[in-house]
Amino acid sequence: MSRWGFVGRAEELRRLLTAVTDGGGRGLFFSGTAGIGKSRLLREGLAALPTDRYAIWSVAASATTAALPFGGLVQVLPAEQPQGLSPAGILRWAVAALRQQAAGRPIVLAVDDAHLLDPPSAALVHLIARVENATVLGTLRNGEQVPLPIRALWTDDLVDHAELSPLDLPDTTGLLAAILDGPPDTCSADRLWRLSGGNPLLLRELVLAALASGELAETYGVWRWTGRLELAPSLTDLIDIRIGQLTPGVRTVVELAAFGEPLGLELLTSAAEPADVETAEERGLISVIRDDRRLNVRLGHPLYGEVLRRQCPVVRTRRLRARLADLIEAAGKRRRDDLLRVAVWRLDSGTAQDPALLLGAAGQAFARYDVPLATRLARAALEADGGYAAAELLATILMFADRPEEAVGVLDAVAGQVDAEDHRYGRWLTVRGMVSYWGLRQESTVEELAASAAELTDIADRARVHAFEAIMRLHRLDLAAAQRLSCAVLDRPAAGLAARELARCTLAHLQAAQGRLALSAAAIATVEAEAAQWRADMPYLQLALELARGTRLMLAGELVGIDAIVVDEFADLAGAGDFRLGTGYLGILQAYAARLRGRSAEALKAGLGACAVLATSRVYAGLAHAERAQAAALRGDGVQAAEAMADADRTHAPGMAVLYPWLEQARGAVLAVTGDLSGAAKHLGELADRLRDDGFAGHEVLVLHDLVRLGQAQHPVGPTCSDGSRRTVAQRLTELTEQVDGVLPPLLARHARAAAEESPGSAAELLAVADEFAALELTLYAAEAAALALHRLRRQRSTGAAAAHDRLGDLLGRCELVRTPALRLAQPALTEREWEIANLAAEGVASRRIAERLYLSPRTVENHLQRVYGKLGVAGRAELGAALRSIPGHDGGLPR
């Protein structure tokens, strides 16, 4: 693990440097909790100051020097002090000594942990702050007694005083990436940030402990934390120091908060002495937070709870949890999550006797997508004689925890409790079928489920089974049967709500693939509107909803819509609850949106994160690797793209055949980035034909546009017409604008037609198309259209090339590293010699020096430069550097 770097704090660092360099002489003190990063910020600020311009002294006060006169500043004062001086005289001598050492330079005195200064040192710091041409900087720890001379610094308006806040989530994520030499996945970064409270010191201890225990590990280049916490002794000692000694009453308050947070203030004061509650709040051990009309109590820091819970004896722990359950039940379980909290406390205290309580809590936890907790509660309900209902719920949860074999065992154990006449049999069939089809990859499950449905006499039970059969048939591309079954479920008034909405999700996904995006959006909206009703019965329906919605948004090019769903409530719940299928799929969507924006590094990071989360998945892993391949191809990394594509083929589930358009589209990108452009065009053409045969017009539009991006707008596709000809890509795209909804298909068709034409006005049309792509945030497509326009204008030697060049430069400035065949068109056809001369000239090397270096005559160099100016569309050297930097793939040397 690398050394901890300095991340974030840009504004605080700027403020600290400004305090020294603005000439005003006002100093700056930062206060904050221990480990928040005060000392590191001070060191970084001092390191940025030039020692030839400033006389810089840095001291670190400590408890060992606090009892010695001038002990805090012993590091900067001369060893020998003059004898016989009064205290005031000694202070004047010390100031004079520092000014003499400064030799006319401005004085900068930095004092770390200034609250530990001895009285004479504190007085000297105050005196220096009053000296002309001197600046005092320092740090203070919250909660400590500050010497009066130091406090007077800001009360006398000699320095500014600011509170150093905890690191925010982006800075914490950046710090983790720097330390681990690789990005953490989003959920792990969020959990570590919350648990550390944004405190770098505590974060360090958490990471060290997680690495040592193997709970923080790297998968596909992304670091992922399991969430299990091993408290290292050093971390426990840090927290113990912060908590300090507790009286029995205060300990009870803090322990009740540790096991019960958030806990109502009224409830806590009824279980403990109010005076002890006040003491705990005054010491920062707990905090009181207003939540709507209630006052809730939480611990002062998340890690307090981890330490206190682990240090609490077993018998006391069980008693405290039982006490909390008693308190909530006596109050009537009025809050929404009281049922879940009471069940967990009863289970942990050994007082859980009601299987109905455990089962209800398990269902509530699963509805929140907290898979580990739901598994634990459902298993406890089953062991407490919860019967078939507990077995069904546990098996369902195990399926979504990537444990299908165990789920089958649970279901088969209760198979004898239901038969065809029992209404529970339909539910057993659907759960058993779901586990077999998606978990165990048994495609024969579909036919078995259909045969079993025929035995059911209850219409609602049969509709539920048919809804599951329909989505399975969609996923294996039995499209006509999937549509027929889904419509039949929706046509049955007796069908249950969850079955109806599952069928509606199947239709919404199919409609999106077919390009009927408006119908798909309406169906998705209907399902969402009923979420409160179906979530309790079938919370995993959310996955079918997200797959349908994500497919529609990707095919429509609605990147803002993707942004919205990756940050909505489901995303938060799935991440917090370790619901990997949900977080993994949302990561794929995030990677897709970043890629179309040209944010290749962001796309690759999100794609790798999705691969890591879905490493054990039997559903979406292939799709994650395909998106990772696309991101690598966008960056021009053919090796990684090919590796990712191989992983996609290896992990893709046959039962998820409906995802083939995305995988095969990625294969085309991989062929192109590895140099096989003709193979890529052939593959994409065949893919477009297959999509047309399957009726997937929504996907076909995007694949045809990929052909346009490869310069194949006039490539023949589709069947042979009566006159023996075939439609071109541009013609087929134009035809599809009548079948596929939305603003994107007409724009893609315009791009195709402009790319297919060689007329003088095609460049202007390409630039207009680029502007419309940019308005939709499809920056990658916009840059590629502008690159083709620039290529044509240069060939025409048009005066509009300069403006097009600027437009392309602006678009590429919004992107990260992007290297696609379409962008290579903007790379002018310079010879190797011209590239060498252009690069040297852009660096400011004179023509005579270039000639000497390359063994050419100065006239030859000038002739080459004139040809370079013409090919780049620039007037001379002043514009040369900017022109070269805007060329895709140019990094200061010969272009790749």
Automatic annotation (TrEMBL):
InterPro entries: AAA_16, P-loop_NTPase, Sig_transdc_resp-reg_C-effctor, Tscrpt_reg_LuxR_C, WH-like_DNA-bd_sf. Residues 823-888 form the HTH luxR-type domain. SMART domains: HTH_LUXR. Keywords: ATP-binding, Nucleotide-binding. Pfam families: AAA_16, GerE. PROSITE patterns: HTH_LUXR_1, HTH_LUXR_2. PANTHER family: TESTICULAR SOLUBLE ADENYLYL CYCLASE (PTHR16305), TRANSCRIPTIONAL ACTIVATOR DOMAIN (PTHR16305:SF35). This is LuxR C-terminal-related transcriptional regulator.
